[in-house]
Specification:
By secondary structure, the protein is α/β, with parallel strands linked by helices. Helices cover about 30% and strands about 20% of the residues. It catalyses: Release of an N-terminal pyroglutamyl group from a polypeptide, the second amino acid generally not being Pro.
């Protein structure tokens, strides 16, 4: 069994991206499953091109993309990617699509086919704040989650895919009043726990992790 873990490069004026830094710190094996780590660009469509090349170059059972979500206080396992790019800020090459479909003839949305609730439970049991999220935003993080769904549907059949958002690390939150942060060691531990949950099987759990609003 093999999992591809990807992290985005820094964006939005940040010096680092904790998603990438945590991915880099993961071991090469978790729960008997090989872990391959890679960087992808925070760029609409180019991120998907790099991801497609990575998936085509090897055989993976799982792919987990990881991204930064400044302002969130927990590790967030994303449930769904929607077919829209709507950028409040430019990506790393200056692209700023507004109300643009990711794929003009694509599905409205793709749900992660990973055991998302079991991944959340595994992180919580490891002592890491975590929750199931029903919105990956409309920036490049949502873009790559949707694109992974499209790839699994049309090219890499049988691929299990998902996305995890992580908070700022303390050095990023410094000077940003009221913005939460999480130590990089905890973010790495959360990713480790999520991957370990994948190594235990594909079935999800029936646990009330929905949102009221």
């Amino acid at each position: 069994m093999k999992v591809l873990m990807t992290g985005f490069d820094p964006f939005g004026g940040e010096r680092i991206n904790p998603a990438l830094e945590a991915v880099k710190r993961l071991p090469d094996e978790i729960g008997g499953m090989a872990v391959v780590k890679a960087e992808i660009p925070t760029v609409f469509h180019q991120s998907a091109e790099v991801m497609q090349a990575l998936l085509a170059g090897d055989e993976f059972d799982y792919v987990v993309a990881v991204g930064q979500a400044g302002g969130r206080s927990e590790m967030c396992v994303e449930r769904i990617g929607i077919n829209i790019d709507d950028a409040r800020i430019p990506d790393n090459t200056g692209n700023r699509p507004i109300d643009a479909a990711i794929h003009a003839e694509g599905a409205t949305a793709y749900f992660s086919n990973m055991p998302v609730k079991r991944m959340v439970k595994s992180m919580l049991e490891a002592g890491i704040p975590a929750r199931l999220s029903n919105t990956a935003g409309t920036f490049v993080c949502n873009h790559i989650l949707y694109q992974l769904g499209l790839m699994a549907d049309t090219e890499f059949h049988g691929l299990k895919y998902g996305f995890i958002h992580v908070p700022y690390v303390p050095e990023q939150a410094a000077g940003k009043e009221g913005i939460p942060a999480m130590p990089l060691e905890d973010i790495t531990a959360g990713l480790h726990a999520a991957v370990h949950a994948l190594s235990e099987g594909e079935g999800d759990i029936a646990s009330p992790m929905g949102e009221i609003h």
